């Protein structure tokens, strides 16, 4: 072979090696680049907590400080959150400033969630999960594994559940699809895997307005809001936050279980056997899932007075960025590892674990009911399917939890591991990571820019000030 041919071969080989190694380094590089671009477009505002100024030991104290109570006004970052949560971010409970409207909205949410007793929640979740899993199961072939994205599989379950919580009647299939389209659009935009589609969200707002106008909300709405704002309230709290958070939490839980066949078998045996050990073990797995993969990346607060910090102070008007993963994964050398048995060894108060926020500063109103309903839904899945996966599992879960579900046959309760399909799933997941990271970079940059251009939060407060 000539020297030129050798060098062509060498170049081709090098290209092949670089191409084959892409999934191992490109996604991380692109994520780092995305963070830098976000900071450039959005400005580098904010005090990371924990960080240089506020350490892990002060995390809870600063979060719980009464002066850490501003929600949206005064932070450039709020424009981006409002953009993602639209329509109606100004009345989304998470983003309302403290005051009578917030109190009214928060009271309504508490009352709506509390209206069902525990046994009624159990019945509702079991029924809706069974229906949706039945719909999946109708297409199953005996003993064959089917590939699903866990978040997508779970969304119709929670759409049906929260529709019934709000309207006290079963969810019609076309409305369930409308709710799923809305929630999926919000979460996909948040993760920068797709642009937002306001038409999908507006369709649901119009439907909710119609329901409100016909007096179909039996358990009351915040009286301080207009009818349009009430529709935004329902959409934001139940058909966006509740559906998104519960589907994400379930996707994390089921993916963690799917990746650990031994743990899965123990859970299934425990849940089908006598006694409460199975439920207790599942609760530990839920706690550990929400600890290792907290649903919130960062929650922000704007300080409305100085907060004392040793000799110094955090000045009023600062934007505090409470970083959940950083806090959860601190405190012990193995804190980032998934180990449900740590809950047997350690006292919960010694673990850094605030999956539902801080009780002194606007915690999640569903903190009591969310783990309980996750347990019921997970038990329903485990009873019907063996789960296996070889996909990557990260906190932001942009792959939506690829997983193989094999129906459990009463004659042959433990299906064989579908080894070849798992190898394919892994390969596909790795390559999707490469493509997706580039998509996230482009779409994320566009949305950060677009949110900055629209200034939804800033113009809302500017208009309010002009009115006063
Ligand atoms: C496993 C599921 C869930 C997790 C891990 C979760 C987590 C959280 C966290 C960490 C916060 C506080 C953030 C902060 O400090 O700014 C929060 C707030 C909130 N969550 Fe959840 N959530 C879940 C499910 C739900 C559900 C089912 C609903 C609705 C029924 C809901 C509605 C809300 C609302 C309205 C707030 C704002 C509270 C306020 O500012 O008063 N969440 N959630």
Structure description:
It contains 16 helices and eight strands. The protein is mainly alpha-helical and 468 residues long. Strand 4 and strand 5 form a beta hairpin. The longest helix is centred in the N-terminal third of the chain and has 40 residues, at 3-42. The chain is globular. The termini are far apart. The mean pLDDT is 92. The protein binds protoporphyrin IX containing FE.
Q: How many H/I helical runs?
A: 16
What would CATH call the class?
A: Mainly Alpha
- Fraction of helical residues: 55-70%
- Using only C-alpha atoms, the radius of gyration works out to 24 Å
Q: Major β-sheet, in short?
A: 3 strands, mixed
Arithmetic mean of pLDDT: 92
Short description:
With 468 residues, the protein is mainly alpha-helical.
Would you spell out the secondary-structure blueprint of this structure?
Blueprint (H helix, E strand, L loop, with lengths): L2 H40 L4 E3 L9 H6 L12 H9 L14 H15 L3 H20 L8 E4 H18 L5 H18 L7 H16 L13 H32 L2 H12 L4 H16 L5 E5 L4 E3 L2 E3 L4 E5 H5 L13 H4 L23 H16 E4 L13 E6 L11 H36 L1 H12 L1
Parallel strand pairs: 1-6
Antiparallel strand pairs: 2-8, 3-6, 4-5, 7-8
The chain binds protoporphyrin IX containing FE.
The site of protoporphyrin IX containing FE (HEM) has 25 residues, from helix 4 and helix 9.
Keywords:
468 residues; 8 strands; globular; mainly alpha; 16 helices; three-stranded mixed sheet; binds protoporphyrin IX containing FE; 7% strand; Cytochrome p450
